[in-house]
Amino acid sequence: MTRTWAGEVRNVSLLVASAVNSEGFREILGICEGAKEDKSGWSAFLRRLVDRGLKGVQLIISDACRGLMESAAEYLPEARWQRCMVHFYRNVFSHVPATKVREVSHMLKAIHAQESRDAANRKARGIIDDLRAARMNTAADLVERSVHETLTYYAFPDIHWQKIRTTDVIDKSFVSSVLFRRFLILYWKDAQRNGIWFRSATAHLRRHCRIEPPRLRSLGGRTFQAATECSYHFSACSATRASWLRSSLML
Q1: Which of 191, 185, 173, 166 is nearest to 233 (CA)?
Q2: Residues whose CB falls within 8 Å of the CB of residue 70, separated by 6 or more in sequence, listed in order
Q3: How many whole angstroms separate alpha carbon 140 and alpha carbon 245?
Q4: Model-level pTM?
Q5: How does the average pLDDT of the chain come out, rounded?
């Protein structure tokens, strides 16, 4: 996102922590604005979450952000780390010729389609040999060095594997919340329509997602604040529910 300081527009990072509660529903634990995704920014963010009572974290899923990894080891030492499978694929693709991306994609997916970690490790060793045979040594080195970081999810029940091996679902849901806020801003001047759509969105959250969004307040500055808070709750919905609401809002 962008911020303006003294007439100068700068890019800033938005640090977001999403988790699954004891009932199996996603929640936004916190959102923090930082200058960049370095260790100091993530440390301050995680320290606030821990001070608020965050505990019992078993798994952290993220991309290969060095600052987050170092901060998590300090503030959540009992948690395991799962490198996002999708982000890892993109890192490998950056060292692969464009004509070979589809082929390499199938090779990498075969690693994570195995039924156990031992089988995945054996498959990965075969893929590394195939990449070297195809003269894609840089990609092979990356897979050999980092593929084990994407296999942590095998330590958990297999019913959860598809959801805990990547942040892709979370990323899509958060993007949907941004679209929802843009929609509310777009129709801000149309008070009647804004109220109707906002009530429709909050009713959907209550009925299908078991989330109690902020109450619709009187039109004015407070309504936009309530809508913004509601959009953050909306990002906790599954990708399917997010797609439903996005289509119903004609976004």
Answers
A1: 173
A2: 39, 42
A3: 42
A4: 0.66
A5: 75
